[in-house]
Automatic annotation (TrEMBL):
Source species of the chain: Homalodisca liturata
Protein name in UniProt: Calponin-homology (CH) domain-containing protein
Chain residue ranges for the region called Disordered: 1-54, 293-313
Composition bias type Basic and acidic residues, residue spans: 301-313
GO molecular-function term, one example from the UniProt record: actin filament binding
């Protein structure tokens, strides 16, 4: 019984045109897998000891080639199936028949050819944000050369130096003009042209202090002065300032003689703070109007010299700024917050000038002018009409960051020359200060007089003398009420609660002494008038003592 034909038997070497199977090929980017022909069977050919077994027909291996693109979603065709030898019908199921196994066993291909499909190698992982935004800042900095970094640093440092040089130039100019405005009053007058060089010998520095203080100071004079004479003059000036309880921070005679700009500018600024600002704000503080720190340059317990120096400047700055804020009219809507940009447009200067002397500037017309025009008008009118020396020019103020020390020095001249800006009642500072002092002195004297009479049991027994004294007190009631209205008012000149409490205490003390005097007079009346007088006196005492029984 014959069965179906078996696969062809291997009869020799493979034909020359038959390609060998293609294993996994190695590409430069990594392993790129292909779909190869079925691998060979490693077993050696075997034969049955009985009858030979026919070999299956030989099917050559297909040649791998690149495929055409597959339609999307189409699955890859299945791989080849192994060939199995069918058993002859009726053959026993005993021991297997040992047949020689061919090197390659194939079954017919279903449908088409099977080809190798290349796979793309996996690439590096990418950060989506980094890919969208580009390189990071660290990558940009790392990619820049050192020359580029040095160039940008040099530009930044050059800008800083330029601003420092401009600030120093404006301060030198302002301080020189300020010193000359005082040295011109001296007999004979002196003049400073170079702030650094002209102060090295100390003679003009001592002359300035003499004009400011009105005191005579010893000075080394002569045509052939040497360094020891310079040091002696400068030491005399520094000792004089220290005697005024002025703290000198990092200022010594050697640096001044050597002409160190920072030390010279610091010394002149300290002198301006004390003689130009502090002495004038003390007059305002005498009314109790606290402008920052009334004595910011005097006695300090702070050991830190840098902190002390800063506190001095801040105290004077607050005092002057508060004076300016009170001096400006409330109806023009102008607010001054500093001594820098608030003064750039020139309106603050014009408002102070108009407050000191009316109708010398046209505020309405100047509001439409440029900053330079307003500043030029303010400086010119202040010098010509008010006698305020011109320390600055418009180009020194009309900048992005005006020098605060220079602006403070110029504004302080208005406080020095015109501290008596009139209040809403039309009274000047001097007038109100004199009224405050006179009322305080009168109350003190009247209290001491009545206390002496009470202690010596010598109070007059005449109602006429009591009536005369009461009339004198009533004449002071109007002044008392006038000053009371200035307590923490929004006027240019005001009185704080601390200063007012001193007057109020003396006034109440005087009222108590007068009630005691009147009670003694009423006690001498015949009954029942004496009892009525005593009852009224007790009632008044309870009212004044704020201890009324309920």
């Amino acid at each position: 019984m014959s069965g179906p034909p078996g696969p062809p038997r291997y009869r020799g070497p493979r034909p020359p045109g038959s390609p060998s199977p293609v294993p996994f090929l190695r590409s430069p980017g990594g392993y790129r897998p292909y779909t190869p022909s079925p691998p060979p069977i490693a077993s050696a050919p075997r034969r049955s000891m009985g009858s030979p077994c026919p070999l299956p027909p030989y099917i050559p291996c297909p040649t791998p080639r690149w495929p055409s693109p597959l339609p999307p979603g189409m699955p890859l065709p299945p791989g080849p199936r192994p060939y199995r030898m069918p058993l002859p019908m009726g053959s026993p199921m005993g021991s297997p028949v040992m047949c020689p196994s061919p090197e390659y066993l194939y079954s017919p291909y279903p449908g088409g050819e099977y080809v190798a499909v290349p796979l793309e190698p996996p690439g590096p992982l990418e950060d989506e944000e980094e890919a969208e935004d580009g390189p990071s800042t660290a990558d940009i900095i790392a990619s820049q050369s050192q020359d580029y970094v040095d160039e940008r640093l040099a530009e930044y440092q050059a800008t800083i130096y330029q601003l420092q040089d401009e600030q120093e130039r404006v301060q030198k100019k302002t301080f020189v003009n300020w010193m000359n405005s005082y040295l011109s009053k001296r007999v004979p007058p002196l003049r400073v042209d170079d702030l650094i060089e002209d102060l090295k010998d100390g003679t003009k520095l001592l002359a300035l202090l003499e004009v400011l203080s009105g005191e005579k100071l010893p000075v080394e004079r002569g045509r052939n002065l040497r360094r020891p004479h310079f040091l002696s003059n400068v030491n005399t000036a520094l000792q004089f300032l220290q005697s005024k309880k002025i703290k000198l921070v990092n200022i010594n005679s050697t640096d001044l003689v050597d002409g160190r700009p920072a030390v010279v500018l610091g010394l002149i600024w300290t002198i301006i703070l004390y003689f130009q600002i502090e002495e004038n704000t003390r007059a305002l503080a005498s009314l109790g109007h606290t402008f920052g720190s009334a004595s910011s340059l005097e006695g300090s317990r702070t050991p830190d010299h840098a902190t002390e120096s800063k506190r001095k400047g801040e105290g004077a700055r607050r005092a002057l700024l508060s004076w300016v804020s009170n001096a400006l009219p409330k109806d023009i809507g102008l607010e001054v917050k500093d001594f820098g940009r608030s003064w750039r447009d020139g309106l603050a200067f014009l408002a102070i000038i108009d407050q000191i002397r009316k109708n010398v500037v046209d505020m309405t017309a100047l509001r439409r002018a440029t900053n330079r025009a307003r500043l030029e008008t303010a400086f010119d009118v202040a010098e010509r009409e008010l006698g305020v020396a011109r320390l600055l020019d418009p180009e020194d103020v009309d900048v992005d960051r005006p020098d605060e020390k220079s602006v403070m020095t110029y504004v302080a001249q208005f406080l020095h020359k015109y501290p008596e800006l009139r209040s809403d009642t039309g009274d000047s500072l001097t007038a109100i200060q004199n009224e405050y002092s006179s009322l305080t002195q009168w109350l003190t004297e009247r209290n001491q007089y009545l206390q002496h009479l009470r202690q010596t049991n010598s109070l007059p027994n005449s109602y006429q003398e009591y009536a005369a004294f009461e009339s004198e007190v009533q004449s002071r009631v109007e002044l008392y009420n006038k000053l009371h209205r200035l307590v923490d008012s929004h006027s240019i000149i005001s009185i704080t609660h601390e200063s007012w409490r001193e007057i109020e205490k003396l006034w109440r003390q005087l009222q108590a002494e007068m009630r005691y005097w009147l009670r003694l007079l009423d006690s001498q009346l015949p009954p029942p008038f004496c009892q009525v007088g005593d009852w009224l006196a007790r009632a008044e005492d309870l009212i004044e003592s704020d201890d009324i029984p309920t």
